[in-house]
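dude i think i finally got it to work??
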Amino acid sequence: MSTSTPSIELEVRYSIVIDMYRQGFHRHECTSTTFYYLPRSTPTSLRRLTAAFEEVEDKMDEGDGVEWRMMDATPQPRGGDDSSILQFGLPVPLSYASGMNIPFRLTIISLNPELSESHIRSAFDARLVRSTFLTIAKQRVRIERVIATGTVWKVERTIGDGTPLWEITGSLVGAKPGGETSWGLAGFMEVRYSVRMNFNSIGSLPKYSCEEYVQMVTDETTDEFDLDEARERPALGLINQQVGAHPPPYFRA
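look at this
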């Protein structure tokens, strides 16, 4: 894999090392090659979902089977006080398979009369960002790329204890299936992912924002059987995708 900026270009190369030992004989071979796929990775813990992510929207409606991590969004005042409370939530654990829609929810508790469904849809923005951190000459460089954007499913308004409550649900869409995974080389580089939420100011309501780091993996598992099966795959298991009419030369003579 490779990544670049106007001033930095980085290429990660892989080598296959083979050592053969026989009585009175030792042969050491090392060949450099290109892998067009990421090694398989799975979540560090099981997700407590009774359905695949594609069905999470229905589960959210039913209020069953999805656990959430809710984060308080931080206001960026433009002057004046605002008593509104915004919380942004992601399903737990915070570990997601690349290419799958990542559900989110945003709750707004506010007496601000300027809030409306159309204003909320236009003010809301959520993104999944890949950050590559490089350590070069004792300096840390950060390269960012947006790999998924938020799509709002619905906006609902209810009244509880006399205070209006807005609930926004949707998902992050756009990451390439099997094309992202969290990884790093200690002391040199690290690839991390974060979900960023921004809610732009509406009238007297200030701007709110929050960011949560998440783990990205190539494969999603939902039960113990699937997890055990995934662990039995080769360490360099390949993910099927089109790479051209001819297979890549994994080994060079």
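The first strand starts at residue 2 and ends at 4.
im so relieved honestly
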